Amino acid sequence: MNYAFYDEQALGKAYDTRLIGRLLPYLRRHPYLLSFSFAMVPVRAVLDLLPALILATAVGTLQGVEPTGGFAWLTSWLEPPAALAGESSSVLLWLAAAFLATQLLWITAELVRMLTTRILGLRALRAVRRDLFDHVQRVPMGFFDRYPVGRLVTRLTNDPENTGEMFSSGVIHMIADLIMMAAFAGVLLVVDWRLALVALAIVPPLTLVAALLRYRMRGAFRESRVKIARLNAHLQETITGMKIIQLFARELRNLTDYRRTNREHRDAWFRSIKYDAALFSTVDLAQNTTIALILWYGSSLSQSGVVQLAPFILFIDLMRKFFRPLMDLAQRYAVMQSSMASLERIFELLDRPLEADDPSQAPVPASRGEIEFRKVTFAYEEEPVLRDVSFRVAPGERVAFVGATGSGKTTILKLLARLYEYSDGAIQVDGLDIRDYPRTELRRRLAFVLQDVFLFTGDLHYNIGLGRVADEKIFEASHAAHVGALLERLPDGYHQQVKERGVNFSGGERQLLSFARALAQEPDILLLDEATSSVDTETEALIQDALQRLMDGKTSIVVAHRLSTIKDVDRIYLLHKGEIREVGTHDELLARRGLYWRLYQLQYAQQEAA
Predict the structure, then answer these.
(1) Which residue from 45, 91, 247, 409 puts its CA 20 to 30 A from 7's CA?
(2) Cβ atoms within 10 A of the Cβ of 149, count?
(3) What's the DSSP call for residue 81?
(4) How far apart are CA 50 and CA 48, in angstroms?
(5) Contact between residue 404 and residue 561 where contact means Cβ atoms under 8 Å apart
(6) Using only C-alpha atoms, what is the Rg of the chain?
(7) What is the dihedral of CA 408, 536, 588, 552, to 10 degrees?
(8) Rounded to 5 degrees, what angle do the CA atoms 428, 357, 143 make?
């Protein structure tokens, strides 16, 4: 199996400012929630500082030591009322009440902050899902030819879910962590700059080691993402091809391949876990080393009477809080890496170009059903599929395209519906270039009947009307397409539920339903792509009658392999290697004994004899 088609792209940074910048517009859609979330950041920082200051003040009170220097300035607001001054027990009671009050305020603020950021994140995530779904519906059809379905489903489901951490608290949490770390460092420098420099000395080497571990972890995480993509690709291919697997007894071989890929994914994930644990342990070691340095250097200062015990305790408490954001980052790094990678791929999908814009104000001619191709050239990749194709279909005419597989028959129908954009030439409907039509108006005039009929999950009523046709039109179309016999045997009639891919209906029944769907839309132009190539003779008789009703009075272009579908049309075009080689009626083309005659001998003669 070629896994390169399914492998993930290389991952970027764990924190990419460019992606964060693109994320912010989704948050700005809710300015009040966003403003409140940012307003809570300094409040949380202050409420995180207060307990340490109160505790240090209480220790100084127990020792009977008056605060000095920067510590005295920071704790001046904690002075008790005059009535309590002088009594240590009363002062301690005052400090205990202040400590309890700050804790209650911190809990309340944290609860409000979490609710606000979560609501903000969920609303932003909903907007991303909506934008992704809307975008995918409007990308050119060629995009789906090159993009694996499994990966696309992952982009629309798993990747938005993975970005939840970034939306709910990622950006705001990072800003809050930086502000809190700066606040803690500032307080430490105010209290005692010498002890603060010793305490913060471990930060530069810690940053270097953490950067190295994050780099290694990114590689391991990227490998695990590649392996999970391969696992998903293997699962998708196995489930889709289960019939072939069982018919050719490939179960053991498939299980062996799956075990190997699963084992590789496990090993890659173990490596990422190892680096994740190392990163967390490094930060923990740095925190404990810092506390040891504070104890060592602070004890020497204390013995010389330079530093008091209360600021010393304040240092230890604040340094623990200083490292807490780093510990959180170490714990959440894998999640943030996954979130950022998913965010990168989401925006990569959103950057895919959409179908060409519809004309803003274009006069749309009256609907008649006239079609004209003028020297149309088109290529899916580099090799042209159509070369200078020109033809005209008058209103109400019925024409057919025949030719070998790959000659460009179906491509003509796709270009007419603007599923793909042609490179050269012009295509007109009712005298107006199709690129000057709004797509909805152009496709309203067309109705496709395909060989592979797709039925949506739901009931038959929805699958025929597609949610936009009145009931009476659905009933009329069903009767004309001979769906009545099918409905009679179904217990729920029009409300019969359709299973996935319509497996509870035969190929002929699905084809009749597709005719009813096309009739119900009341199109002006009918496009049939090998619509009768895979049905039995009895069903074909019903389909032929439905076809006559469907094509009556409508401009029709038919791509077919069955002679019964094309021999009565007004004109037949034979395509060969992307060019129109022969044009005429069935009898005229047979009389020429050219390419059509040879094709007839190979494909149609036995059908006519039967």
Answers:
(1) 247
(2) 10
(3) P
(4) 6
(5) no
(6) 36
(7) -90
(8) 90
Contact 404, 559 (CB under 8 A): no
Beta strand extents in 394-468 (DSSP E only): 398-403, 424-429, 432-433, 446-450, 458-459
Q: How far apart are CA 217 and CA 156, in angstroms?
A: 26
**C-beta pairs of 505-512 under 8 Å, 24+ apart in sequence:** 505/455, 507/453, 507/534, 507/535, 508/535, 508/536, 508/539, 508/542, 508/543, 510/453, 510/455, 511/449, 511/453, 511/535, 511/539, 511/543, 512/481, 512/482, 512/483, 512/486, 512/539, 512/542, 512/543, 512/546
The 10 Å Cβ neighbour count of residue 412 is 24
Q: Looking at residue 583, what is its pLDDT?
A: 93
What pLDDT is recorded for position 552? 76
DSSP code, position 568: T
CA count, 13 A, side-chain hemisphere, 533:
16
337, 220 in Cβ contact below 8 A? no
- Burial grade of 239 (CB within 10 A; 0-12, 13-18, 19 or more): exposed
The reported pLDDT for the residue numbered 220 is 74
pLDDT lower than 70: segments of the chain: 1-16, 62-89, 150, 165, 167-171, 218, 222, 225, 298, 300-308, 329-335, 338, 357-362, 501, 531-540, 543, 561-565, 603-610
At residue 572, the pLDDT reads 93
609: tokens are: 């004899």
Nearest CA-CA partner of 551 in 534, 531, 577, 579: 531
d(CA 240, CA 224): 24
End-to-end CA distance of the chain: 43
What is the pLDDT at residue 104? 92
pLDDT for 399 equals 92
CA 498 centroid distance within chain: 27
Token pair in block for residue 413? 């129908």
Angle at 201 between CA 200 and CA 206, to 5 degrees: 95
| Cβ count within 10 A of residue 71 | 22
**Position 318, amino acid:** L
The closest alpha carbon to 187, from 171, 176, 205, 200, belongs to 200
